[in-house]
């Protein structure tokens, strides 16, 4: 293989900060946070090597996850009971769907946890084999920014919601304990209708709500961060291809490039097998909650804090959905770039390895999928946006008819 | 061809239980049941060899089928007459469409019967030629489970419906014979409006209704079971490919694999020519009845048994549709797997046979189709689900306008 | 090339009845009929050889066509004037759109006439070069049946409409001349509002209406017949391929097959350049009129002859649309068949010519298009059917809201 | 390379008028006009060579652009304030969206300006390398016609709008200064509600409105002209290919053709990177305003000048959208033509270069995209038209419900 001086420098730099750029280390803080909320129960996430990662059914972490899963199922059960007895509309089903999605999310992360150790080991192997491509300095910063942005936004939304509920409770109660009770009754009326109010029950409901809210936000964050890290691997390969554009490279170079591209395709495939449940849940729930918020936007809002909460939560939801969608679609965008680069190859540098690589990049389709039902590309995002706009138009027209 | 020890063992096992795993034997109980209800009128379904299968127009079975076909046409005729004279809405057309679908189903199975003997012979030839791939132990169990599940569900739904109708009749009649009469008048009013009530006519109508209900359920069951069996053939081929992944195989191995894959493609094509009418009917009717049930769900249900019946029939309809859809889409899913496996081939094992197989799996499209109008893949299922959700949204919005 | 005995017999038969099977002769009666109604103004349609075909701007036939075109434009002008002054809804625009489509149809056929001579010469050349494939006996019969069916249906619809209008007129007039006047006023009120009633004007309007109705029906018939004839060419090629399936053929055979397939592709391309305007008009107008009839179906019909007319015209419209759609889609269906046949080729018969033909049939897309906006395939027909069903659902829901 | 006499003549002609046909000179008048309205702030647009083109952040032109950008943002701010306080429907949001699109357009052209010099240099290099293809005489005429047509249409629309507003103002004011004041208050009420009326403010608002209107029209014009110029390059290449159709060409010819086609693909890619924001804005805003005008068409218009304005502005909007859509889709149409031409190649002229070119044209996808969310092809235009028709149907149905 003909290594240009520039690439050698990259290579050295890669060895120097290889510890820093590894996916295993980058994702570690996120995984630790997830485990506090009973998501992704694997051992060894803080170990220096990904080989220490283990998933065991017989462990405290898995037990914690399963306990949370059953608590959420418990909440879903009372929501369904409430709807069946009292009857419910589009809006009343929100609570059931919210806890239903949370339960499914915990299930999907449990499923992912079983595949996580092997995935991270494969990822590290790819990173090691392609260390000569160097690393992108901006990746860690980018991941930190997105993490901070999404978590801060979610925290603000959560506190605005609590303030909203508390101020409502304060207006309807005399004593301090009454405020808490009113607050709990308002936000979990489906539960207390059957069990009656008790402080233990209130604590339980609060914890369940917090976990569900966290899992809903974390799901998007996790997909976005993983996708960005994978996109970065494709970007490094493309940067390398771009550097040699127009030059005549040896067959060995093309063979190696093809093998590296193939190993990235396999990594995407492995990742997809792990997270495609999460992707389906994430896109489905975001689509549902955007439509719900559009529906809610037709109701007049009385207080300024209700208005602030509504605009914040809706704006944040749109921002989060756009972030996660574009991040995931980025894998597909970046994986298609070699296609164009290969067309520019001068005629005398054609050989069997080149044509194999060309056929590979022309025919392959690299993208995360939602359980194979859809693959996340920019075209698919336009379809999703079109669906939302159509729903909004129908809503606006109906509200004209009604008034 | 280089045969690995592991494959030889599989081969021996295959010879040992070849009788058990053959498609002809697996499908026999289903075909016998179908023939009791005048579907798939071929001779020799219980014979040990598929070569005994015969379709003759001049036979008692075909006569039975044609008699049923005309009885159902008779029912359709009275439904149309009723609608044209009394007028009908979306809901009133249900009866006509129900018997119309049943008539078309009997026609489609008659068309399939003419192609059945050749199809099963081709299937057996494929099984025999690929016996070295062994057989999957779980296939028969899987088919039995699905058969039991769908038939039990359908039976429960039928009895709940009968109970519903009988309890309605019991409230409106004094004598026992009056109950039966009321019951028949309620469920077949379009018939007795013209012919007047008679016991012979009532028996005729009951039998026709039972046959129509059976054919509607059996259609889905039959497609699901056939698809699962075909998917299994692709799975065995993929398991074999997976086993040799990364190893350097001879050109002979690739030639054989390509020929086997091609013969599976042809088998899919032959199956498709036989069942594509049934697939179109199945997907069309399921889509229609789901939309109808969603429409019905807007009406309040008075009694607890009406409610139980409604939730059961709707839930079962959704479950059945999901089962049949995912089973059929499984053929396409499984047939696409070699695509990814071929990309990972090391450079030195490339030869003409490899590139032919690679071109084959990259460009072919293997799936059952609904009379070529659509091919059943996961993407198509998402489109179908999206259509149902859109209809539900329009319904909910309109019900808001009305109230 | 290795010619099998069977093919030789076909070849001899082809020479014997080559005069009968030629596209030029088959389409002649249709073209003559078209010219009576000022469509397709070319000279030499009844000549034995297609080389006698000529299109001249300075000819009586073109003058006739242009006169009709201006008469129809005249009608459109008064329709627009009427709508702008009196105002018009969805239904009132029907007249304008009807004459607008007729005008566009005459324009599209004039455009086709300029390309017709070259197209028929190319078609004859293809027929001559592929005469060894023989001819299909059933083609002429099929074309005659479809012609008879569509023309008879259109004639019946026209007379039912006239009867309807006349019986309406008879009820509102005393004298015989009054009946005619009432009849004309009813069916062409937009014209007489401005010009006042006169017998000359009434004759003019009747002729214009008859020409517009004929062109609307002829458009579909013409596309269907041309497509069936082209599909037949592909079918003959496929029959030949099928006959040699599994046998080892020489490179010369594959080269010839590829060249023949390519010449059929070019013929489709030339045909498409000529008729794609007509295809767009045909599909667009059929879609529009189906939706309009669905809309009309919500209004109650008072008399039995109104009811008969409505059901006949709607049923015939659906039948005609299905016939023309499936005929045009047949070209695509038939052109895709070699794709599957090529996969089954035994390994030892591979050579450069085979792989060129294989690449050709795998990547080409052969279909008539509607001015490149859509290509007519079965999948596209499903989309069109889905659009109609969606419109029907919206209509039914709105009618529920209104009542 | 084998040069035919015909091509040599083309080559000479190209050298003779190379100055005239260059893209840089053709687009210059348009760019100058754009710079008067602060769009595309680059230096050297009137220089004879594209190498004189420069983009500098520190320049008067960029400062002008940024000043306009902030003025438009200022307008958007007051629109949002007005909507949030007074509340707004679908129609009231029109003003905000209009200025929002204008702001985004100025941003998109600023982004394009940074890439403009390199793009024009690349374009000139392509023109120079392919000068042997000659030039199409009709290109400049075509561009001038479209420019004149779109600008004249926009001017007429603008003056009709002003007349409308002035005549409304004249009816509500006594003095001349009062007319101006009324006129300004009517067209910019969201601004004067907060700032109070002043002449300085009125001038500012008028200039901002004129700039926004110009940028909205110019955006479409610019995309259309650039696309037509690029399409012309593909057309010249196709004309050359067509001229040698059926002849046996050297490998060198095919190599050169492939390289030229590839360089056009790269030019499209570079252009796309520059204008894809503008394309997204253009298609989005046209779709929005067409739907808005359809919505407005339901309201009755009182005066003849209101009616004239409405029909003119709507007709012009449709014409402009069709022009820009078909122009952009033309790139894709023209780039697909070699696909068909390559199939007709005689067998003995096949070689490696031919098969490379064939693979290139069969698998590549050349089109401008809207920020990768959609690529502009005829199929996509049909989808867009279908969306508009669906919206119109929903509107008409709802208006039936309301009345």
Radius of gyration of chain A: 25 Å
| Number of helices in the DSSP assignment of chain A | 14
Average pLDDT of chain A works out at 86
**Largest interface pair:** A-B, 28 and 19 residues
Number of domains of chain A: 1
Query: N- to C-terminal separation of chain A?
Result: 73 Å
H/E element order of chain A = HHHHHHHHHHHHHH
- What's the helical proportion of residues of chain A? over 70%
Assembly form of the protein = homotetramer
**Beta-strand content bin of chain A:** under 5%
Largest sheet of chain A: none
**What is the overall shape of chain A?**
elongated
How many strand units of chain A?
0
Function (chains A, B, C, D): Plays a role in the sugar gustatory response.
Pfam family, one (chains A, B, C, D): Trehalose_recp
Subcellular location (chains A, B, C, D): Cell membrane
GO molecular function (chains A, B, C, D): taste receptor activity
Quick description:
Chains A, B, C, D: It is a multi-pass membrane protein. 4 copies of one chain form a homotetramer. Chain A is mostly helical.
Descriptive account of the structure:
The structure is a homotetramer of 403-residue chains. Chain A has 403 residues and is mainly alpha-helical. Chain A has one domain. Chain A is 78% helix and 0% strand. The first copy, chain A, contains 14 helices and no strands. Chain A has helices at 5-16, 18-21, 23-36, 60-86, 93-129, 138-171, 176-187, 189-195, 199-243, 251-296, 304-335, 337-343, 352-363, 378-402. The longest helix of chain A is centred in the last third of the chain and has 46 residues, at 251-296. At the A-B interface, helix 10, helix 13 and helix 14 of A face helix 14 of B.
């Amino acid at each position: 293989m003909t290594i240009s001086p520039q690439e050698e420098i990259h290579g050295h730099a890669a060895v120097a900060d290889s510890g820093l750029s590894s996916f295993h280390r980058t994702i570690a803080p996120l995984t630790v946070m997830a485990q506090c909320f009973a998501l992704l129960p694997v051992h060894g996430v803080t170990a220096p090597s990904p080989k220490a990662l283990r998933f065991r059914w017989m462990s405290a972490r898995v037990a914690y996850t399963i306990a949370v899963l059953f608590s959420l199922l418990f909440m879903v059960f009372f929501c369904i009971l409430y709807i069946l007895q009292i009857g419910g509309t589009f809006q009343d089903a929100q609570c059931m769907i919210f806890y239903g999605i949370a339960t499914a999310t915990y299930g999907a992360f449990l499923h992912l946890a079983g595949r996580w150790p092997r995935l991270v080991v494969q990822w590290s192997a790819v990173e090691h084999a392609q260390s000569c491509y160097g690393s992108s300095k901006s990746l860690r910063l980018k991941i930190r920014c997105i993490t901070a942005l999404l978590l801060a936004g979610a925290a603000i939304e959560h506190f605005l919601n609590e303030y909203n509920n508390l101020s409502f409770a304060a207006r309807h109660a005399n004593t301090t304990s009454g405020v808490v009770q009113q607050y709990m009754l308002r936000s979990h009326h489906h539960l207390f209708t059957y069990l009656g109010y008790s402080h233990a029950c209130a604590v339980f409901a609060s914890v369940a709500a917090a976990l569900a809210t966290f899992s809903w936000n974390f799901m998007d964050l996790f997909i976005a961060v993983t996708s960005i890290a994978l996109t970065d691997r494709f970007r490094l390969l493309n940067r390398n291809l771009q550097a040699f554009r127009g030059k005549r490279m040896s067959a060995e170079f093309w063979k190696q490039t093809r093998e590296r591209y193939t190993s990235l395709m396999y990594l995407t495939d492995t990742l997809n097998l792990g997270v495609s449940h999460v992707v389906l849940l994430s896109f489905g729930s975001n689509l549902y909650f955007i439509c719900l918020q559009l529906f809610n936007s037709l109701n007049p809002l009385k207080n300024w804090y209700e208005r602030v909460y509504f605009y914040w939560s809706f704006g944040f939801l749109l921002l989060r959905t756009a972030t996660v969608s574009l991040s995931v679609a980025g894998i597909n965008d970046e994986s298609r770039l070699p296609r164009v680069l290969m067309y520019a190859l001068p005629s005398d540098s054609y050989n069997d390895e080149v044509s194999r690589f060309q056929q590979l990049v022309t025919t392959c389709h690299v993208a995360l999928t939602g359980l194979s039902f859809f693959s996340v590309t920019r075209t698919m995002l336009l379809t999703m946006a079109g669906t939302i706009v159509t729903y909004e138009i129908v809503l606006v027209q109906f509200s004209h008819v009604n008034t």
